[in-house]
Design goal:
With 224 residues, the protein is mostly beta strands. The protein is built from two helices and 13 strands, in the order αβββββαββββββββ. The relative contact order is 0.21.
């Protein structure tokens, strides 16, 4: 056992020196990441007059993230993201299309992100984060079978707040270029239908609420 004590101690001291003097994340650094992934969301809708519906469905996610190192542990930034879902309009919004096919629902968000980097070495960086911001959902088309006025046109847009929290892992295989993986969970407030579409006879004052999880992968880049 004594034969391994000295090498093990040397390795630990070396690792500690690397972590302290050549961190992948440090004060003053700028980080940019572009990722793609998948998300699974429980979507619920509610009308002012009666209940609408709910569904759990998978979608595609494409965010762009920026971060600045305030200290060697703390970073602040913002995220611009979008999710795309194929949903059954009848189960959520009470109408059908002439083809009977699903419609494309787009969910967008812009958030302020607070990051804590709990482990950072020369090549790797691990952090947890919380995000707060504005979210929206929207869709439109011209092939509806309306249960009210027979109009084929439909347009829906709603906005609210979103909270997201998760974990990020980055590995830099070059000095400034690396690969990122992120896992997160999120939920929105009841997103209220925008005024421009609130009087639609199909969706009259219908709110949308979402909560789910997402996993993303993609390149990351650092400056300084």
């Amino acid at each position: 056992m004594k034969n391994f004590a000295a090498p093990l101690l040397s390795f630990c001291l070396c690792l500690g020196t690397i972590s302290a003097t050549a961190q992948a994340f440090h004060k003053g650094t700028y980080l940019i990441s572009l990722s793609e992934g998948s998300t699974k969301s429980a979507i619920k809708t509610r009308n002012v007059n009666d209940g609408r519906g709910s569904t759990t469905i998978a979608g595609d996610r494409d965010p762009l993230t920026f971060e600045y190192g305030v200290t060697d542990k703390l970073g602040i930034g913002f995220n611009i993201g979008g999710d795309v879902f194929q949903v059954n309009p009848n189960s959520l919004y009470g109408f059908s299309t002439t083809t009977g096919k699903d419609i494309t629902l787009i969910s967008s968000e812009i958030t302020i992100d607070f990051n804590y980097h709990f482990l950072s070495t020369k090549k790797a960086d691990f952090s947890v984060f919380s995000s707060y911001g504005i979210a929206s959902v929207s869709f439109e088309g011209d092939d509806a079978i309306s249960p009210t006025d027979g109009s084929a046109q439909y347009k829906y847009a709603a906005t609210g707040l979103i909270f997201r929290t998760g974990v990020k892992a980055k590995y830099y295989f070059y000095k400034r270029l690396g690969f990122m993986c992120m896992v997160s969970a999120y939920k929105t407030s009841p997103m209220k239908q925008n005024e421009e579409t609130a009087n639609s006879p199909i969706f009259f004052n219908t709110n949308t609420r979402m909560r789910g999880v997402a996993i993303e992968f993609g390149p990351c880049f650092r400056i300084r």
